[in-house]
Amino acid sequence: MSTRSKAAAALASAGILLVGWNVGTANGKTIPTTTSAGTGTGTTVAAGSNAGTTSSGTSGATGTYTGTTQSDRFGTITVTVTLANGKISNVTYATTVRDNHSAQIEARAIPTLKAAVLAANSADVSTVSGATYTSNKYLSSLQSALDKAA
């Protein structure tokens, strides 16, 4: 096989991979999926989303609300949300972790989740890859706080 044919084959393969990636991810963006899922431990949430949660009903709410403590075998998370005129203005959390590895995962995932929640003004954001348990606990506790504000 000549050098030209190898280069053409490599370019064609890269193009096919790029097209497949764009189609599968809606031009590079995560495709939200919807399923019926509850909150709390033991629930299954569609990959890439926290299905079944929204922040509806908080329009005009102002104050600080604390969600229920969510726990699993890796630790617990309790999220507190501050609302100003129905908009999420701050999100804080308290946590206990069972090991150093879990602490590292939380330290990486929670700032990402917080930024996504503030940008979306909702608990309906994607989970962080590699931190599914942490994401689900965080978003479930956040949703319960938003439900209290409703």
Present the secondary structure layout.
Layout: H1 3-24, E1 63-66, E2 70-72, E3 75-84, E4 87-97, H2 100-120, H3 132-149
Antiparallel strand pairs: 1-3, 2-3, 3-4
Helix pairs in contact: 2-3
Provide a descriptive summary of the structure in words.
The protein is of the alpha+beta class and 150 residues long. The protein has a domain of 87 residues: Sufe protein. Chain: A (Alpha-Beta Complex), CATH 3.90.1010. It is built from 3 helices and 4 strands. Strands 1, 2, 3 and 4 form a 4-stranded antiparallel beta sheet that branches. It starts with a helix and ends with a helix. About 21% of the residues have low confidence.
Q: Count the beta strands.
A: 4
Note the run of SSEs as H and E: HEEEEHH
Percentage beta strand: 15-25%
The count of helical stretches stands at 3
| Unreliable residue stretches | 25-56
Q: Which fold does the CATH topology of the domain at 63-149 refer to?
A: Sufe protein. Chain: A
Average predicted confidence as pLDDT: 78
Q: What is the overall shape?
A: elongated
Biggest sheet: strands, sense, closure? 4 strands, antiparallel
Shape-level CATH architecture of the domain at 63-149: Alpha-Beta Complex
| Residues in helix, % | 40-55%
- Straight-line N-to-C gap: 67 Å
Rg is 20 Å
Structural class: alpha+beta
